[in-house]
Amino acid sequence: MSQLSSASTALLRTCARQQPATVARSALAAAQQQRGAANAGAKASFESPFGSTAEESGATLKIPSFKKYMSKSSPSSNKVFSYFVAGTMGLGSAIGAKATVHDFLTNMSASADVLAQAKVEIALDAIPEGKNVIIKWRGKPVFIRHRTAEEIQEANDTDWKSLRDPQPDEDRVQKPEWLIMLGVCTHLGCVPIGEAGDFGGWFCPCHGSHYDISGRIRKGPAPLNLEVPAYNFPSEESLVIG
Hints:
The chain is built from four helices and ten strands, in the order αααβββαβββββββ. The protein is α+β, with helices and mostly antiparallel strands and 242 residues long. It has a domain at 118-241: Rieske [2Fe-2S] iron-sulphur domain (Rieske Iron-sulfur Protein), CATH 2.102.10. The chain has a four-stranded antiparallel sheet, with no helix packed on it. It has a three-stranded antiparallel sheet with strand order 1-10-9. The protein is elongated.
């Protein structure tokens, strides 16, 4: 009798363990069926936001309609407005670019004190014949020589074609009696001494360069003649350098 009771108890326990698993599987299957039905209903009831017609129901590409965004004006009016906007923006950009370039050039231009040194005016009547005058122009010395008739003849009689830097005297002066040159030796930038040297012109004591009465290199290491700056004669008695 006791053995029968033990068997019954074991059978009931086994059924109790298997029942939750079976119930869980049944509940999971029911949930999956309900989810599938809900998805099917959602697909069936979904409507495209772009709309569709009976003819387009089988189409895979839905093109939205933008008719409500189209302008009510004529195409020519729209073109005129577009051209006006583009032209206005272009004009504004051009004005802004012009102002920018103008400001840049104004800032980069020379100041008043620099412009004042750009030109120097000299009274020639204060320089006697046969004498030199040295002035400062743009931070450099300038030689002004009032040449005599003999010096002019000597400069013209020289065989300039055989010189190191061949140049005739008439190419170096505007008026034969007035010789204007930068007082900077073309060798290393020293200042030559006037009325000195082997040729009666200028002599650079630094390295022994000799220049004649026209400022042409005749002897020594200097490779070029003394430079002639830009100048003019506003009147018979004045000289402007620069």
